[in-house]
């Protein structure tokens, strides 16, 4: 080796030695610093058995999670078993939970430490806050006027901001609640649009009818049709002509809370069995079709609105006018108005 | 005082025991002729009718309107059977609706007390009491299920519940339909037993009835894609699962993770 | 690791906060975890809910179904209903997520109720924690509405009937009922198509934001005042809270609870069917089904509605108060008011205006415990009657008989329970006091009559029995 080479090599060795010395000094110092800091968390005894349990549990959780992916990928949506997917994901989560429980109970120390509850009050700061607010207002001479003006502006703005909500629906008038699509002469049709002939309406069963040309979704549209023996019918005097041939029509919407009246009972043996009635499945309000839809059981407070019927020249059923009263659940003032 | 109490108790028991037969005719109280022919006959039917049905339905099947004491001092009253046809008799007998223990009971599915031969005989006899519909022969078909669901919802679900689990109508129990046979369903729709409405072929055609029957049969095994069906009754069993399965389970988890008061 | 901490502290100045938070003390009792069960159910609700919003179509426009589920092929339904059918049958794992979401809602409400009972019967709502109690009640009632809207979005037969009843109850509110119903629905029931949009934005954004905000406030206030504790040892006082620090003791437990709650919910979502809307079919206002019920947390309202006798309050031809008001609107408001005002009512009646950081055992406050049991029993009995028609079908107990029995029982049984439970608590306390006095007497006797040698701690003291 040349002289220069020997000098460089020796210099390099010196630098290496210096770096090593510095590192060892530094490391020793840091270790000592760490040893000098007090332990906050007490020493916990090692528990390798518990560690194995945790690893095992997490391993099972891993497999289950992978299982979920496999089940998901393998089957078509119709055939994939909801149970299998749920078991894979649910149990995977359960095993992670179990692993964390073991960690909490065995691997990590559970300390019991004390701490002060915060003081009930901070009188000094409270006093400062009050003082701050009070002193800041020292330049204000007419506080009430300013506050009043602020309240007026804020209140008016608040109301203004809420005003577009009026477009949500009609406000302060309840006319839409009285509207029905029925008028004198409108034909009664079934779900498919076929008109009901009076002759096809039999006793001991019930039918659902709609007004021709109106939406079936309108709450005042559906009526339930029944036919009773005319000698059984006792309608109020003004409705004497409303049931041609004993055919009666009532709103299908219960006056209690608005469910559809989808039950009808008819006695096979009237001597021993209760008389015909329309029943609502929600709270079992029961209405008597023979007496104008009066409530004979259940919580409804208003009779079922009756639709007058007439039979036209072709023998089809048509409405003779509008309902005897407003349709659907009752509201404040409902009886004072009439169905329109 | 003690003796008086004992006497009163015994007297009450005796009274109750005495009235028991009047209150409930024993189910095994079927009156049969001493010897029966080996095959169904009209004559057997009339004998069985006279012994078991006439007290409520009248000796000629024209009904009894005023409850009067019949056999075994049980008051009898019942509708006329003239013209109801084989359809009605077949339904009421095969489902065990009839005979009825007490006229104040609601007829419902019950033990069938007659043998098949006896039922056939009775059906033939009742059918002979006038002209009425014969036993239907429905043809359910799985392709009709969508139409069946629609029709069932329209006409039946209000009482029978959307998945035919039965329900309540003021004054009666509406039975679940999981064990009903196609013939029984067809017959019930055409009769309207007890408080059920009676749907004629004009309102529900035979083709539509086949669709309804198809749907009802499907409710025996409702499509429970989501797992355990818990009765297909909706939120009531769901709430029971929440409070009796989920909440206790979670409380157990909490107790495992937390401490007790005196640990 | 210290590098990471330094990185965070240099940029967020949060090391002091982290240090405080990590050593925050949690008093340790299993019943204190119940609120967390509710919180973690909410987390599962958010997670599964987000997934559902990616597929749900909040539109009531009518369509005809041509999907996988045969019994509904060709049926007319709303796009909303159709999209939920697709989530259930056309998207893998869609049904699992949907069912988990619904189970999480039921469990969320149930765990709030259980948590409420724990807080009530231990007196944790007392000063200074009254606001936390009120916020919790607000979360309970917001949750009721949130769940109701959630399952009503689907537009199936069962929930549509439930919406009709909600409309009927809204209408029954005196004076404002009619306009209020029209305002919310836009038109008489079933309302305009915009109603679905209103339910949707309320359910996926407005109400979850409200609940999340309330929950944050709730937790912040609990942390600010620190959690209450039982008097487990003389160390536990009104001034000093004793418990497990957040880190390393409490965090893995809380995480374990989260995974446990999620596990239970997903297992339920996979194994137990809930709300099979394909079996109910789409909603139309003129269709009904027997046995229609709301989700369990609204069952108290259907019970109340069914229990009411038939009357509208009228003057001549003018209706003042329609029938559903009492059971559907006034009843829940009364419950909310009584529960909400209870901290202040109790303060007044017991003349106890002090701070309380220590909890009572239920027996330590006989009147409060008795009132709580009676009040909750009143609500529970009303709730139980809501299922009377199914009880009739199952056990043949006449519906009408049940009606009359319950109308009496809902008043009589809570009254009896009030006096009975109060007496029982007092007797338990008395027994404890007698036992304590006996122990003190024994210790006193030992102190007086024990020989000097007994001062040696290694010698067991003489025990005087009897």
Task: Characterize the structure shown.
The complex is a heterotrimer of chains A (340), B (263) and C (466). In chain A, 37% of the residues lie in helices and 13% in strands. Chain A has 340 residues and is an alpha+beta fold. Chain A folds into three domains: 1-27; 48-107; 178-336, Rieske [2Fe-2S] iron-sulphur domain (Rieske Iron-sulfur Protein). In chain A, the strands form three sheets. In chain A, strands 2-3-4-5-10 form a five-stranded antiparallel beta sheet, with no helix packed on it. In chain A, β11 and β12 (317-319) form a beta hairpin. In chain A, α2 (48-74) packs antiparallel against α3 (82-107). Chain A starts with a helix and ends in a 21-residue tail after the last strand. The mean pLDDT of chain A is 89. Helices cover 46% and strands 6% of the residues of chain B. Mean pLDDT of chain B is 87; it is low at 17-27. In chain B, β1 and β2 (75-78) form a beta hairpin. In chain B, the strands form two sheets. In chain B, strands 1-2 form a two-stranded antiparallel ribbon. Chain B has a two-stranded antiparallel sheet with strand order 3-4. Chain B is mainly alpha-helical. In chain B, α4 crosses α8 (182-191) and α8 crosses α9 (206-218). Chain B is built from ten helices and four strands; from the N terminus they run αααββααααββααα. Among the domains of chain B are: 34-127, Cytochrome Bc1 Complex, Chain D, domain 2; 142-218, Cytochrome c-like domain (Cytochrome Bc1 Complex, Chain D, domain 2), CATH 1.10.760.10. Chain B has helices at 2-23, 42-52, 54-57, 85-94, 116-127, 145-155, 157-160, 182-191, 206-218, 235-257; strands at 64-69, 75-78, 167-169, 172-174. The N and C termini of chain C lie far apart (63 Å). Chain C has two domains: 24-330, Cytochrome Bc1 Complex, Chain C, CATH 1.20.810.10; 361-452. Chain C has 16 helices and six strands. In chain C, the strands form three sheets. In chain C, strands 1-4 form a two-stranded antiparallel sheet. Chain C has a two-stranded antiparallel sheet with strand order 2-3. Chain C is mostly helical and 466 residues long. Chain C has helices spanning 2-12, 15-22, 34-53, 79-89, 94-121, 130-152, 157-171, 177-185, 194-225, 246-271, 277-280, 299-307, 324-350, 366-385, 388-395, 399-449, and strands at 25-26, 62-64, 76-78, 240-245, 313-315, 318-321. In chain C, a hairpin with a 2-residue loop joins β5 (313-315) and β6. Chains in contact: A-B, A-C, B-C. Chain A binds chain B through residues 82-83, 86, 97, 101, 104, 191, 200, 202, 204-208, 260-269, 271-274, 277, 279, 281, 284, 286, 297-298, and chain B through 65-67, 77-79, 103-104, 154, 157-159, 167-172, 191-200, 202-203, 225-227, 253, 256-257.
């Amino acid at each position: 080796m040349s002289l220069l080479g020997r000098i460089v090599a020796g210099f390099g060795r010196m630098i290496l030695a210096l770096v090593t010395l510095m590192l060892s000094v530094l490391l020793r110092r840091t270790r000592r610093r760490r040893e000098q800091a007090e332990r906050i968390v007490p020493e916990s005894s090692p528990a390798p058995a518990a560690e194995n349990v945790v690893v095992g549990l997490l391993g099972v959780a891993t497999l289950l999670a992978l299982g979920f992916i496999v089940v998901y990928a393998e089957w078509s949506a119709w055939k994939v078993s909801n149970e299998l997917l749920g078991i894979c994901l649910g149990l995977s989560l359960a095993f992670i939970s179990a692993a964390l429980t073991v960690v909490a109970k065995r691997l990590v120390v559970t300390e019991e430490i004390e701490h002060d509850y915060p003081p009930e009050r901070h009188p000094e700061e409270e006093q400062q806050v009050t003082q701050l607010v009070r002193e800041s207002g020292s330049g204000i001479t007419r506080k009430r006027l300013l506050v009043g003006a602020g309240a007026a502006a804020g209140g008016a703005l608040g109301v203004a901001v809420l005003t577009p909500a009026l477009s949500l629906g009609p406000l302060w008038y309840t006319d839409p609640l009285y509207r029905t699509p029925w008028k004198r002469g409108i034909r009664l049709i079934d779900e498919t649009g076929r008109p009901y002939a009076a002759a096809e309406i039999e006793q001991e069963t019930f039918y659902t009818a709609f007004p021709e040309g109106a939406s079936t979704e309108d709450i005042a549209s559906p009526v339930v049709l029944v036919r009773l023996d005319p000698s059984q019918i006792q309608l109020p005097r003004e409705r004497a002509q409303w049931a041609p041939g004993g055919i009666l029509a009532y709103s299908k919407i219960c006056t209690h809370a608005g469910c559809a009246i989808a039950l009808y009972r008819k006695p096979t043996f009237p001597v021993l069995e209760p008389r015909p009635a329309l029943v609502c499945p929600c709270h079992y309000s029961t209405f008597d079709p023979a007496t104008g839809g009066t409530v004979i059981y259940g919580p409804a407070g208003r009779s079922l609105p009756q639709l007058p019927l007439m039979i036209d020249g072709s023998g089809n059923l048509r409405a003779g006018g509008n309902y005897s009263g407003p349709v659907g659940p009752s509201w404040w003032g409902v009886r004072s108005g009439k169905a329109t | 005082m003690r003796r008086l109490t004992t006497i009163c108790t015994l007297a009450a028991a005796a009274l109750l025991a005495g009235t028991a037969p009047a209150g409930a005719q024993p189910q095994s109280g079927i009156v049969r002729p001493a010897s029966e022919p080996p095959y169904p006959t009209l004559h057997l039917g009339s004998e069985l009718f006279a012994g078991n049905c006439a007290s409520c339905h009248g000796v000629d099947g024209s009904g009894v309107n005023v409850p009067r004491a019949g056999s075994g001092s049980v008051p009898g009253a019942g509708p006329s059977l003239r013209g109801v046809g084989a359809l009605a008799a077949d339904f009421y007998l095969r489902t065990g609706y009839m005979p009825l223990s007490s006229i104040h009971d609601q007829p419902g599915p019950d033990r069938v007390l007659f043998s098949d031969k006896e039922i056939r005989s009775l059906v033939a006899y009742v059918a002979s009491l006038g002209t009425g519909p014969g036993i239907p022969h429905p043809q359910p078909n799985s392709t009709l299920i969508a139409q069946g669901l629609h029709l069932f919802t329209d006409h039946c679900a209000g009482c029978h519940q959307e998945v035919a689990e039965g329900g309540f109508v003021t004054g009666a129990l509406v039975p679940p339909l999981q064990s009903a046979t196609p013939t029984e369903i067809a017959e019930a729709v055409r009769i309207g037993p007890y408080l059920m409405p009676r749907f004629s072929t004009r309102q529900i055609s035979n083709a539509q009835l086949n669709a309804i029957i198809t749907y009802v049969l499907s409710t025996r095994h409702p499509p429970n894609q989501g797992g355990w069906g818990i009765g297909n009754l909706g939120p009531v069993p769901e709430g029971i699962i929440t409070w009796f399965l989920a909440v206790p389970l979670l409380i157990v988890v909490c107790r495992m993770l937390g401490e007790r008061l005196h640990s | 690791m210290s590098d990471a901490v330094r990185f965070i502290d240099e940029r967020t100045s949060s090391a002091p906060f982290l240090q405080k938070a990590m050593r925050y003390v949690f008093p340790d009792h299993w019943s204190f975890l119940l609120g967390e069960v509710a919180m973690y159910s909410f987390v599962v609700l958010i997670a599964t809910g987000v997934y559902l919003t990616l597929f749900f179509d909040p539109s009531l426009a009518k369509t005809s179904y041509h999907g996988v589920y045969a019994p509904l092929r060709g049926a007319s339904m709303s796009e909303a209903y159709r999209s939920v059918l697709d989530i259930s049958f056309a998207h893998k794992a869609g049904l699992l997520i949907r069912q988990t979401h619904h189970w999480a809602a039921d469990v969320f409400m149930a765990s709030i109720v259980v948590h409420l009972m724990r807080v009530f019967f231990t007196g944790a709502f007392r000063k200074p924690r009254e606001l936390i109690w009120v916020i919790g009640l607000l979360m309970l009632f917001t949750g009721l509405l949130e769940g109701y809207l959630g399952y009503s979005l689907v537009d199936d037969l069962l929930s549509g009937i439930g919406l009709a009843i909600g409309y009927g109850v809204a209408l029954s509110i005196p004076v404002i009922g009619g306009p209020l119903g029209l305002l919310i629905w836009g038109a008489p029931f079933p309302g305009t198509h915009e109603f679905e949009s209103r339910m949707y934005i309320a359910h996926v954004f407005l109400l979850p934001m409200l609940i999340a905000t309330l929950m944050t406030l709730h937790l912040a206030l609990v942390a600010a005042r620190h959690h209450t504790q039982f008097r487990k040892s003389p160390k536990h006082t009104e001034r000093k809270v004793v418990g497990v620090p957040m880190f390393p003791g409490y965090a893995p437990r809380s995480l374990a609870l989260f995974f446990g709650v999620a596990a239970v919910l997903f297992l339920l979502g996979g194994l137990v069917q809930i709300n099979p809307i394909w079996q109910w079919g789409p909603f139309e206002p003129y269709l009904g089904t027997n046995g229609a019920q709301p989700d369990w947390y609204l069952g108290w309202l259907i019970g109340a509605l069914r229990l009411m006798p038939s009357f509208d309050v009228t003057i001549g031809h003018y209706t003042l108060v329609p029938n559903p008001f009492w059971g559907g609107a006034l009843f829940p408001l009364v419950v909310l008011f009584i529960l909400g005002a209870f901290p202040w009512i109790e303060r007044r009646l017991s003349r106890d205006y002090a701070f309380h950081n220590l909890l009572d055992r239920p027996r330590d406050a006989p009147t409060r415990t008795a009132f709580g049991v009676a009040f909750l029993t009143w609500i529970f009995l009303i709730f139980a009657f809501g299922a009377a028609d199914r009880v009739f079908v199952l056990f043949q107990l006449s519906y009408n008989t049940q009606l009359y029995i319950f109308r009496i029982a809902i008043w009589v049984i809570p009254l009896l329970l009030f006096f009975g439970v109060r007496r029982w608590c007092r007797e338990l306390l008395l027994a404890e006091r007698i036992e304590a006095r006996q122990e003190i007497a024994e210790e006193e006797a030992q102190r007086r009559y024990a020989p000097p040698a007994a001062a040696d701690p290694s010698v067991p003291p003489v025990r005087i029995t009897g």
